[in-house]
Amino acid sequence: VNGGNIVLNADITSSDVISITTSVVLNGNGHTLTYTGANRAIDVPNTAVDVNLTIKNLTVNTTASFCERGINYNTNGVLTLEKVAVAGTNINYAINLPGSSDNATVVITDSNITGNIALNVWGEKVAITANNSNFTSPYESEVEVCSVIQFNNDGTTAAHGASLTVNGGSIISLAETVALSVSSYDTAISISNETTVQGKQETSSIAVIYEGQTQFYTSSTLQHAFDLAANDPRAKVLLLGDVVLDAPVVVTGTVVLDLNGFELSYT
Q1: Higher model confidence: residue 197 or residue 200?
Q2: 26 or 224, higher pLDDT
Q3: pLDDT, tens digit, for every residue of 123-133?
Q4: Is the pLDDT assigned to residue 64 strictly greater than 90?
Q5: How far apart are CA 245 and CA 231, in angstroms?
Q6: CA 187: distance to chain centroid?
Q7: 22 forms bridges with which residues in the sheet?
Q8: Please, how many CA atoms are within 13 Å of residue 173, restricted to the half-sphere of its CB?
Q9: How confident is residue 3, by pLDDT bands cut at 50, 70 and 90?
Q10: Residue 205 pLDDT
């Protein structure tokens, strides 16, 4: 898609990624985009600079046994979602903001977003406002790597300086695990009293990195991180900020700890 205003007059089924490279308004007009592929339904690639994308009155439905992304916004412009529904059989990230989305502005209104991670954020200084919108995850993980809304930090790329303001609506973990996970210590979160939250809220200061893979787990305590990494030759515990312990950490196996330039102290 290359610019302009687009209004759908019928439902669409496609196995191809809809790639948006210039600013556009996509009005679904109450129709459904069914994506049958395993990649991403709507993608703004990282080569598209300052693209402003507005999507409204549209349902995005993914039907493959696994789908990586619903809406992937990979630049630093403005993403506006109005009356948008995103869901699928097994959609990994319903809305994804990669590292190249630094300084993007996201406004989500009257929408329903469902995925293993409904809203996944890597970009620095991304400002997100959600009004009367529902974020839901059916995903259940023993190590709680996933949450309904997730701000990431793998020790190299992080959502530093990002912000989230939620007015009304809901953040629901159907697995009753984590509703909100914030791995970047300087992310600002504001959730109104009118917002329904089901699941834990965690601000993590530790990351367990599986070397040679993209998979990682965030932990809110050093003990949890050590427990995950114990006796795993691929894993190391990477500090994401200064850590002050008020109780000893019990080491049950071989653990590699990388201070990452921060301090570990005991009171």
Answers
A1: 197
A2: 26
A3: 999 999 999 99
A4: yes
A5: 22
A6: 13
A7: 2
A8: 23
A9: low
A10: 59
- Alpha-carbon distance of 241 to 57, in angstroms, equals 42
Amino acid of residue 90: N
Q: How many CB atoms lie within 10 A of CB 215?
A: 12
Tokens representing 30?
């109450």
Tracing tokens 């809901």 back to the chain, one arrives at 170
The sign one gets for the Cα dihedral 154, 156, 157, 159 is: positive
- pTM, two decimals, is 0.84
Q: Cα–Cα distance between 259 and 155 in angstroms, integer? A: 11
